[in-house]
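I hope you will forgive my troubling you with a question about protein structure. The matter concerns a single protein, recorded as an amino acid sequence and a row of backbone structure tokens. Please examine both parts with care and let me know of anything in them that strikes you as inconsistent. Here, with my thanks, is the record as I have it:
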Amino acid sequence: MCVWVGCHVTSLPEEALQHADTIFLGPGEDTWPAFLADLRTWFPKKVYRSTIRTLVGTPPIRRDLIKRNLYLVPNSIVVSRGCPHACDFCYKESFFQGGKSFYTQAVDDALAEIARLPGRHLYFLDDHLFGNARFAAALFDGMRGMGRMWQAAGTVQAVLRTGLLEKASACGLRSLFVGFETLSASNLRAHHKSQNLDRDYSAAIRRLHDLGIMVNASFVVGMDDDDETVFERTVEWAIRQGVNGHFPHSHSLPRTNLHARIQAERRITTTNWDLYDTRHAVFQPAKMSAEALEAGYRGAYREFYQWSSILQGAWTKPDRAGRLRHLAYAGGWKKFEPLWDWVIRLHRVSNFLPCWSLFWRDMERKRCRQTFARLSEPIITAQQPPQSNESRYRSALSVIRINQLFNCFDLSLIADQADSIARFKHRHRFRIRHQSLIAQDGYHRCASLRPQVRAGQRLPHERVTRRQPDPGDFDCAGGVHQIV
């Protein structure tokens, strides 16, 4: 049985039905369970159209089915659907027809999904993670103390909003994709990009850089007010701002408002959907030829990612860490993007890590080993006779993975399964209280994640209380208390 889902299917259902037994239009949270129920009776429908828009009660993702070694970023996550804005070139309006076009998970569900992901790095694939300020603020507060490093997408408007970006930075935001789209106000108005109108782009970029957040800036070229000078002007501005640039074509996806307008003007030049990849001109631009648009697109990337431009952009950063991060991304990733495409297609991502990543990880582990050697107290104190530091360290290995301990003292540490924690507790009668270490004033202080203490709050340099454990020390029914 052949089942088709996604944006293409929702935009062109008649075409999709020629190649599939069943198609799904719109999101699938409500339609997929209905399809499975019908499939058990051997009579599934031809078309399932989404009408109920909610993420409440959605089961957890079966990440055990994912072959993580085949993905460059296996820790991808989506905690919302759609976007609160209505840009006329975006797929959103056609995909979410018939119901709400922007909604989020419950904050607790989102935090539980994040806690299940291994490692430190996350990639939020939400169209606009900051779209619901109340949800985003609660999410960022809940992520404080988790020790995550993550990237996401947002708008200029959200970046300039006071308070929210600071919360995101405090819980690990290190890179933000921002749709600047164009430097032309008339283009913004024509494409209903009102959230960017009368916004200070430079101020938004400074806010991000001041918080140590890398900017991945998107500029759409080929809009109706763009002529052949748009490429040089946009590239020069982006280099001066020290951002990482993306320059996709203005492409009119089927069933979007932009596509309807251009089609009415008879400017669509092809319906070969393989060319709708933001790299090919699929319509006639208003102030340049299609050939000039494609040539300008290639030239913009070539000029922006030449070494002189990369170095110029890196040296706009105020500190060495920002410069190195810019060089690593622009030079190590975008400069060699064709090579990475080849590696990904060969399913060799896990065996092809860039040298700079290995170097920084080794440096970080060395620093953590040195810090561990300076600690005068054990991380976990048992009701046992005094031991040497080495003996205490070895006794803790039954619940602490050494590679996680040395990986920045995240202490993603205390066993993966609640039943093993319970057995360890019964056997050793330990009181495990503090779950993360925060570097402060040259030494590590403990930060408690217990409910009565706010995450990230600095406490006295106390390790363990010598007493019998109580049931509140562990949550053996639902897993370990949230850990970094």
About this structure: The CA atoms of residues 346 and 367 lie 35 Å apart. The longest strand covers residues 173-181. The mean pLDDT is 77.
